[in-house]
Specification:
single chain; alpha+beta; Beta-lactamase; two-stranded antiparallel sheet; globular
């Protein structure tokens, strides 16, 4: 499978916090999506910020190295256990997809619909570019899309949402991309209450990478590779993928949102040379866990994933 070459950032952690609050009563669902504490030792995120260094990625001509069945099972188990130990009773959806081999390497509750929070900004951006016929937008629009994605700017997202039809954006993107588990919010004004699954997040990144025209794809991916910490609202958004894959190229779209009885914390993106791996970890955690521990739980899961993928990434 062919893969575009991208410029991705090598980053470490930062610290600051603010919350996006929605006044909804949401009880974390029980059942198969709930993970309990395990025996995996978690690794907390770093507190020391480091500058983003942009470096070009290169392709390897060697045959791709993938994971054995045993390694895939261990990847799934260790990520789930790490999140569960750090934040018991968390409801999650998790997928790691290898774009080089076309294989799903890990999958937990992959078709379970969970709140997107700011991850829906991927759909807003795709829709804006598609609405213009994939023509490279003017500099002002590029700046707006970059700020919306890199800084997770809510004001810009709300403007696009209002101007382009609100819930109709989600419906158009479901049809365009072919999403199975994505639904618009019940309240048309609350774009963050859109729901999606880890499988659909993988499909979104595949669409950006492999089906959108190069210029349109680059507009989005360069913004994701330039993710800022903190985000424009002051929230420390380097948790999960950015804090765990510290020596690996990545491009990410994070999501966070406070509900009346739960915290939504999502980390999604591509990692490795040529964006080889698509990773999505969506979580809905108990509201009592707090932002610091909630972010640490997501980072613990991604730290386990980074360790499991280390050899395969090094061979890319």
């Amino acid at each position: 499978m062919g893969r575009r070459r991208l410029w991705l950032g090598l980053v470490s952690a930062g610290a600051a916090a603010a919350v996006l609050t929605a006044t909804f009563l949401v009880l974390p669902p029980e059942g198969n999506g709930t993970v309990e504490a395990g025996s995996i030792t978690t690794v907390p995120p770093s507190e020391a910020p480091a500058p983003v260094v942009s470096t070009p990625t290169t392709s390897s001509s060697a045959a791709p190295v993938t994971l054995t069945e045993k390694e895939r099972a261990e990847l799934t188990e260790t990520v789930t256990a790490a999140v569960g130990q750090a934040s018991p009773r968390t409801n999650l959806g998790f997928v790691v997809y290898d774009r080089e081999t076309g294989e799903t390497l890990a999958s937990v509750n992959a078709d379970t619909s969970l709140y997107t929070a700011s991850v829906v900004k991927l759909l807003i951006a795709i829709d804006a570019l598609h609405d213009d016929g994939w023509i490279t937008p003017d500099a002002g629009t590029v700046d707006d899309l970059t700020d919306m994605l890199a800084g997770s700017n809510d004001t810009i997202a709300s403007a696009f949402w209002g101007d382009d039809g609100g819930t109709a954006i989600v419906k158009r993107m479901v049809e365009l991309i072919g999403l199975d588990d994505t639904t618009p919010p019940t309240d048309p004004g609350e774009w963050g209450m859109t729901k999606t699954s880890a499988n659909d997040v993988v499909a979104i990144y595949q669409f950006i990478e492999d089906q959108m025209p190069d210029d349109a794809s680059a507009t989005i991916m360069k913004a994701l590779a330039a993710a800022k910490n903190p985000a424009d609202d002051g929230f420390a958004q380097f948790f999960g993928i950015p804090d765990a894959f510290t020596s690996t190229p990545w491009a990410v779209k994070q999501g966070w949102m406070e509900l009346k009885s739960a915290l939504v914390l999502n980390t999604t993106g591509v990692v490795g040379a040529d964006s080889r791996y698509v990773v999505a970890l969506l979580t809905q955690q108990p509201g009592t866990i707090g932002w610091t521990k909630g972010r640490a739980a997501v980072t613990a899961g991604m730290t386990a994933a980074a360790a499991a993928l280390k050899n395969a990434i090094a061979s890319s």
